[in-house]
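Continuing the series of single-chain predictions for the mutant panel. This is the parent chain; the variants come on the following pages.
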Amino acid sequence: MSALDAVRARQSWSKVDDIAPTRDELLPFVAAAGRVADHSSLRPWRLIELRGADREVLGAAIAKAQGDSSPSSKPLRAPLLIAVVASYQKSEKVPRWEQEAVASGVAHTLSLLLDEAGWGVIWRTGHYTRAKPVAKAHGLGKNEELLGWLYVGGKPEGKKPGRRKTVDARKLITRMPKAGAKKAKKE
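Parent structure:
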C-alpha cells in the first residue's frame, strides 16, 4: 500500500478490541513517526504508554480534574493509550508553536502507521489534558504539555470505523494573492 493509499484509508476507531501492540511492536512505529519535520532536530516531544492499571490512575486524575467523585471510565475504552506530550526545548530559532506542531505531527504520523498496520486508533483530547491532576499523573515537567492520547486496540470484526467526510481540496488550497488584491473569499 502506498503512503497516499494509507492516508486515504485512515479512519478513527472509537471502539476497539482488548488487544494492542506490544512495546516491542510499537517501537519501530515510534522510530518512524519521529522522522517528522523538526526544525533544528529538537525532538520536542515524548510519548507515554498507559496500559492496565495506568489507565485507572488516569481515570482518577480526570475525575479529580473535573471534580467528580468516581473515576472516569474513558481511559478504559482501549487497552493501550499513548499520551502525546509536547516537551518544549529552549531555542532561539524554533518558537513554542512550532515545537507543538512537531509533537502533533509525531502523533498523527504514529496514528497513520498504526492504522496501516491493522490497529484501530483514535486521537482523543479534552479540556482536562491541561489540568494539573492529569499532568501530575503523567509526570509532566514544567516545560511540557499533554496534547491528548492515542487510544489503540484491535479493529473489531464486522464493525466499521467512524465516517469521514470527503475533503474537497479545491476549496482548501488557494494561490498567493497578487499585490494589492483583496483577500479571496471562501466559497
